[in-house]
């Protein structure tokens, strides 16, 4: 995909109902899911993209040179890949979904704090609207 050099996008991704995974299968199983999701994200993105754990079961993904059209394509691809993934852990094989909050700035007009706040608002709306979706703000 050709990248738009003037844009920067950010995704906050949160695993849905993750407390239930821990409560049902135990914390080590939750850790196993988090590790596999990290690998899925890394395999889905480019080397210039920055991925980090954000809080407990959230991930932050910073996408340089990525506009709103492109971030939506990436987010939907991530959502579907994770939704279709079977997480094989020693306690059980399980499925999870994720909700993603997206935001984009042109010419780096917004600070990182502003971008995180906007993505967090989008994530909150996605959770309120039933999870397993992306929302762009
Ligand atoms: N196994 C494991 N669990 C974690 C880690 N960090 C946070 N958690 C758990 O993640 C869960 C987050 O729960 P909540 O914030 O209630 O959210 P949720 O159950 O995912 O529900 P929604 O986000 O509303 O869909 C808690 O049970 C935390 O203990 C971690 O590193 N490993």
From TrEMBL:
InterPro entries: Diguanylate_Cyclase, GGDEF_dom, Nucleotide_cyclase, Rev_trsase/Diguanyl_cyclase. Residues 6-137 form the GGDEF domain. It comes from the Bacteria. SUPFAM superfamilies: Nucleotide cyclase (SSF55073). Coiled coil: none annotated. Its EC number is 2.7.7.65. It catalyses: 2 GTP = 3',3'-c-di-GMP + 2 diphosphate. This is diguanylate cyclase.
């Amino acid at each position: 995909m050709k990248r738009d050099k003037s844009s920067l996008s950010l995704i906050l991704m949160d695993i849905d109902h993750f407390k239930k995974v821990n409560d049902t299968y135990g914390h080590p199983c939750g850790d196993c899911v988090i590790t596999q999701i990290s690998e899925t994200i890394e395999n889905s993105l480019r080397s210039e993209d920055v991925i980090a754990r954000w809080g407990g079961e959230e991930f932050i993904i910073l996408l340089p040179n990525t506009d709103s059209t492109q971030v939506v394509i990436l987010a939907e691809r991530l959502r579907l890949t994770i939704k279709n993934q079977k997480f094989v852990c020693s306690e059980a094989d399980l499925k999870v979904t994720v909700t993603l909050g997206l935001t984009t700035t042109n010419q780096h007009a917004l600070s990182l704090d502003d971008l995180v706040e906007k993505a967090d608002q989008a994530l909150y709306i996605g959770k309120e609207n039933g999870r397993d979706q992306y929302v762009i703000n």
